[in-house]
Amino acid sequence: MSEPLRCREPATGTVQIDDENIRVTRWDFNPGAETGWHRHGWLYVVVPIHDGTLLVELANGETMTAELKAGVSYTRVAGVEHNVVNGGTGFLSFVETELKSLAG
């Protein structure tokens, strides 16, 4: 039996810079909105603009949550397929910087 179809509102990704070295994208999420399944080709840094809770869905069916604090950055390596969902009850934004010159 297959998993039922899930339909969530898409988060809004706005590319602010995209050159030979970096790509900077601002992500804005209403409660329950998602990025959609994706995989980063480069190491990346995330800077939350708002406090909030992310639900991260992984390709193997596992999930994890991450508590975001405004202005507290974190980094991730390239290559992990995932979907990011606003797991909280309020609006959430972060800025994601992918470092093209440092391949994962």
From TrEMBL:
CDD domains to which the protein is assigned, alphabetical: cupin_BauB-like (cd06982)
SUPFAM superfamilies linked: RmlC-like cupins
Cupin type-2 domain segment(s): 26-93
Family matches, as Gene3D superfamilies: Jelly Rolls
Domain of life: Bacteria
InterPro entries in alphabetical order: Cupin_2, RmlC-like_jellyroll, RmlC_Cupin_sf
Identification of the protein by name: Cupin domain-containing protein
Species this protein is from: Paeniroseomonas aquatica
